[in-house]
Amino acid sequence: MSLPRKLMIDGEQTVETTRTHVKKLFVPFLVLLAVCVAAGFLIASIGDKGDGKAGWVVIAIAAILIAWGSVLPFLGWYLWTYTLTNKRLVEQKGILTRTGRVIPLSRINDVAFEKNLNDRLLGCGTLIIHDASEQAGLELDDIPRVEAFHRTVTNLVFEMHDQQRNDEPV
């Protein structure tokens, strides 16, 4: 899911779009698995006893738990994107209410990344971007291939700063 063309500035092109690492879906997957196993066990235990309403109650409760514990986290993960263009970095998130943060590349002062042992094993990390604003730096957690993304952001920032230096009157 890239940045929609209607949100782009003249001359702007998408360089890279990413979202957090799929490891964020591990717990929602376990919830899905546990609820399905528990619901299947309960429905099999109930069998043909009673008038069949108990089985439908179990299915309804399982559906609610799956929606709350698996579907909503998946949608949140899927709809939370980071888009790097040749002019800015855009973070967009939200299911019903979309929010975003835009950092122009010309305002970025520092780009760093962190990787703990788990991140190193899974090939992801946290990208930390500081800009020239009053707000705290933007932390992009669990970015896949964080070193490559870091390198791309850094190269674009250097190009932007060099271009600004060359455009300044002497």
From TrEMBL:
Q: Does the keyword Transmembrane apply?
A: yes
Q: Which domain of life is it from?
A: Bacteria
- Domain YdbS-like PH: residue ranges: 77-151
Keywords, sorted A to Z: Membrane, Transmembrane, Transmembrane helix
Transmembrane domains' residue ranges:
25-44, 56-80
Q: How is this protein named in the record? A: PH domain-containing protein
Biological source species: Aeromicrobium wangtongii
